[in-house]
Amino acid sequence: MALDPNEKPGQPITKFESMLKTDDVYFFDAEDFEDIIHYYLNNGKIGLAKKAIRIGLQQHPDSTDLKLLDVEVLVFEDKLDVAEKYLDELQLLDSHNEEIYIQRANIYSKKDNHDAAVTLLKKALELSENSLDIYSLLGMEYLFMDNFNLAKESFMKCVNFDNQDYSSLYNVIYCFEFLEDFDGAITYLNEYLERNPYCEVAWHQLGKQYFSKKMYKEALASFDFAIISDDSFLGAYFEKGKVLEKMGKYNEAIESYETTISIEDPTSHAYLRIGKCHEKLQNDDMAQYYYYQTVHEDPLLDKGWLAITDFYFKKGKYERALYYINKAINIDGENPLYWKKCARTYQALKNFHEADFAYKQAVDLGNYEMDTWIQWSQVVRENNDFESVVQILKQGLEFYPESTEIEYRLVGAFLALNKFSQAKKHLLNALQNSPEGKTVLEVEYPRYYSTEWVVNIITNSQKASR
């Protein structure tokens, strides 16, 4: 039986550690050694677990359970060939020991042969009297195989065995969420709560499902029940604050976030949400204060820097916005969101050279959002660099081949370069896919939109489509 990792060391463990310190040799029952080893494994003390296994096997050389714990450590350390050799020897002695099949399954899982692992775990189920751990392992294998329905069923069996197996409960809900079956998750959690009405974890998860479906009143009630079940449940207060924000109850949301701060040390996420609420309430001084607290508490939280930059950007204080986004870039120059925000700020300041550089950095770091390509093309267009406009838009079209918004802009850029055949190709394609989208060309390139050449192509295209 594995010990809880939070359990305090018992008498055998204290005695064992005393033996290690004094170099005396004490005798332990094999069961004591198992408890000692499980304690060290659960607490990540692999070195001490290996010492206990070595000494345990010296005192009990025929103990299959201790040998299996030795195999478990070998598998953990990726010494799979040695582990398999030991399992072959153990299976000759005890072919009906389910733990042998479990460890073989772990080896196959490590080798990414999850089908074989599932087969072995099912064999272990046939031999096991206590199948809780095996169903949990099966659930994980099914997750590796992206079989979320079977994973869900396995974890449900774990919860049926033990209502307080919250790890399995979380995994059940994870499967529902991945399958986008929010109604199924709600039904399951409500049935679970009929049996366990004071389970704060289930109420919390139920609230999150309602929140996903924008059923804010139901979500709020669920989080309130979670708090009634455990008035120190930090996550419930935080999620309740998010619901209250969605309902426009910003003062109440602030109270909920402040409660999380009173229960535990302040977090940057709580400061950020409070700042957002104050901004909605137009309490600008308080919003600024909490945004400053956010980035002070966690300088690596990108949402904090983006929030304070947005705060000044929306007020037209672009120099101030630029100051903070540059501070963010100095801390993490690999964040594409920072560079994109930096580009937008330079763009607002009409510093198109720096904006061009910043957009390039954002794209190089992996920001391929459509508006990035469009805004970047707008920046280089301000410098009358239509060759670059074409190159940028063509890159964007590779990511968004159905985007007529990009194609209409390409038409204008090609016309600016007097490349009529390319312009005609993109114009016809855009008109075929979205004739009403031609307003993009009209707004962005009015000089070319009204030319006889463009008017004729549009007119002929309309006639052909009738």
Key words describing this protein structure:
single chain, 466 residues, mainly alpha, Serine Threonine Protein Phosphatase 5, Tetratricopeptide repeat, 77% helix, disordered N terminus, TPR repeat, TPR-like_helical_dom_sf, Tetratricopeptide repeat protein
How would you sum up this structure, described in words?
Pfam families: TPR_6, TPR_8. This is Tetratricopeptide repeat protein. InterPro entries: TPR-like_helical_dom_sf, TPR_rpt. Keywords: TPR repeat. This protein has 466 residues and is mostly helical. It has a domain of 82 residues: Serine Threonine Protein Phosphatase 5, Tetratricopeptide repeat (Alpha Horseshoe). It has 28 helices and no strands. The longest helix has 14 residues. The N and C termini lie far apart (77 Å). The N terminus is likely disordered.
Structural class call reads mainly alpha
**Sheet with most strands:** none
The helix content is over 70%
- Give the mean pLDDT: 90
The CATH topology of the domain at 385-466 is: Serine Threonine Protein Phosphatase 5, Tetratricopeptide repeat
Number of helices in the DSSP assignment: 28
SSE series: HHHHHHHHHHHHHHHHHHHHHHHHHHHH
Taking pLDDT < 50 over at least 5 consecutive residues as the criterion, the unreliable ranges are 1-9
**Global outline:** elongated
Share of β-strand residues: under 5%
Q: Got a strand count?
A: 0
List the helices and strands and how they pair.
Layout (H helix, E strand, L loop, with lengths): L10 H12 L7 H13 L3 H14 L4 H13 L3 H14 L4 H13 L3 H14 L4 H13 L3 H14 L4 H13 L3 H14 L4 H13 L3 H14 L4 H13 L3 H14 L4 H13 L3 H14 L4 H13 L3 H14 L4 H13 L3 H13 L5 H13 L3 H14 L4 H13 L3 H14 L5 H6 L1 H4 L2 H14 L1
Helix pairs in contact: 2-3, 3-4, 4-5, 4-6, 5-6, 6-7, 7-8, 8-9, 9-10, 10-12, 11-12, 12-13, 12-14, 13-14, 14-15, 15-16, 16-17, 16-18, 17-18, 18-19, 18-20, 19-20, 20-21, 20-22, 21-22, 22-23, 23-24, 24-25, 25-28
